[in-house]
Amino acid sequence: MAIQQKLSLMIPGPTPVPEKVLQAFSKHPIGHRSKEFQDLVESTTKNLQWLHQTQNDVLTITGSGTAAMEAGIINTLSKGDKVICGENGKFGERWVKVAKEFGLEVIKIDSEWGNPLDPEEFKRILEEDKLKEIKAVILTHSETSTGVINDLETISSYIREHKTALSIIDCVTSLGACNVPVDKWQLDIVASGSQKGYMIPPGLSFISVSQKAWEAAEKSNLPKFYLNLKSYRKSLSSNSNPYTPAVNLVFALDESLKMMREEGLDNIFLRHNKHKLAMSNAVKALDLNLFADEKYLSPAITAIKTGEMDAEEFRKTIKNKFDILLAGGQDQLKGEIFRVGHLGYVSDRDIITVISAISNTLLDLGQINTQQAGEALLIASKYLKSD
């Protein structure tokens, strides 16, 4: 009987969970109306504001990142409102569907999968809106289906110039991986999820809400109950929750945020950038091509084209041989690409290990030679050593 191996998650979520966080997660539950839990909510809320770089309310919802994004939309908009949706991957596509489901009039700005959204398209449409009919701009910052990061800083500056439109941003795989200064960029709604850069299991989502967004919420007429953010805001004033929260996930969140504060924002961003550069440059030495535009690579994930090789078979081989789980392509990209996640609790050792596994598999398939395999590791090491 073969020894049971440890599955290594190198996908964009769920991401690996630190031992200290798992230990916190395994504590006995406590009452969610107790003073002990209120103290926990107070601590995590302060640290969430630190991570978001904001003085805005940051609310915690028991639900996935999609719940937070839906909450941002339905709490600030009304049926028939005109919105811009950016779509250059699976998740941008999702927000178009959600907006239409709630009866919003969608102006779509799209880009071919693998390319970033063009900020100048947002500028043009917003400037042409002389009557200020556009009520929100909805987009994904880090599009993990393709490995692209969009230029949120520039796009958000154009939204601010419009004065009326809200920014509703999916930062599910960018928050905790790269700089998202919510107050500096005056972002109105920022949604994220626990199983990504937060380094805890799935089940919580977070939403930062600006004063401008709260003012819009007073006019919103879309239906909401569980995701009514006013209820969460009212409860947060007494460090509580309107409904039964996932208590043990909050234990885990408290520990993970303490770890993140200890590492520091700049070091967190530096680590993710080093891993992105190590991964993206190493695979090029292995005769593999990046799927995304190299100038816009996400710090969360690297998408890799396999050419004539079936990407799903390649992923299966690596999982069976090395117990490393890589992500596949979605929709039309299935079988065409595989994706290596380097988000959250990922170390230099993990990056070296996954590059070695990819190299070894390519060697077995006769796709590369030993010199290329060695070169890939040397390249990765150079970037991992950089400051």
From TrEMBL:
Keywords from the UniProt entry: Aminotransferase, Pyridoxal phosphate, Transferase
Named cofactor requirement(s): pyridoxal 5'-phosphate
Family annotation (PROSITE patterns): AA_TRANSFER_CLASS_5 (PS00595)
Positions of modified residues (N6-(pyridoxal phosphate)lysine): 196
E.C. numbers: 2.6.1.45
Residue ranges constituting the Aminotransferase class V domain according to the UniProt record: 13-330
Superkingdom in the source lineage: Bacteria
Molecular function terms, GO-annotated: alanine-glyoxylate transaminase activity; L-serine-glyoxylate transaminase activity; L-serine-pyruvate transaminase activity
Gene3D superfamilies in the cross-refs: Aspartate Aminotransferase, domain 1 (3.90.1150.10), Type I PLP-dependent aspartate aminotransferase-like (Major domain) (3.40.640.10)
Protein's UniProt keywords contain Transferase: yes
EC supergroup of this enzyme: transferase
Family to which the UniProt record says this protein belongs: Belongs to the class-V pyridoxal-phosphate-dependent aminotransferase family.
Protein name: Serine--glyoxylate aminotransferase
Origin species: Prochlorococcus marinus str. MIT 9302
Lineage: Bacteria, Bacillati, Cyanobacteriota, Cyanophyceae, Synechococcales
